[in-house]
User: Fold Single Cache domain-containing protein from Thalassobaculum fulvum.
Amino acid sequence: MLTNVFRGLAAAMVAVFLAVSPAGAAERASVDEAKAMAEKAAAYLKAEGKDKALPAFNGDAQFKDRDLYVFVIDDAGATVAHGANANLVGKNLKELRDPTGKLFVQEMMAIKDSGWVDYSWQNPTTKAIEPKRSYVVRVADVVVGVGAYVK
Assistant:
């Protein structure tokens, strides 16, 4: 009987751990969700203009979800919105390289319509440098992007 109690307790502990574990799959957004948010942000920018859209991308909850956030880079390489790190707004990132040496901002800037860019970046949820896949949409003189961290 005591063995059954320990088994039941162990099973309950595992269930609780899995339910609250930050490593759970539900904590990570997918690349499909990143693409959908990027398209939503690009449509919002087109409809509302920069004066309304850029502040919304920096702080509005509709443009943040788990580890997803919107970033916007202009044709000179300057960050004009960044939903995870306001300190990057106003910084020119054109020459920024990821840990592998990839000039990923330049790759984003080169997108003419929409597309994917793969690179490594700090995950705001885990604080670790992780592989990231961002979907980027060109809207006039800026690119709007949202990326998902991938394993």
Notes: The longest helix spans residues 2-20. Confidence is low (pLDDT under 50) at residues 2-25.
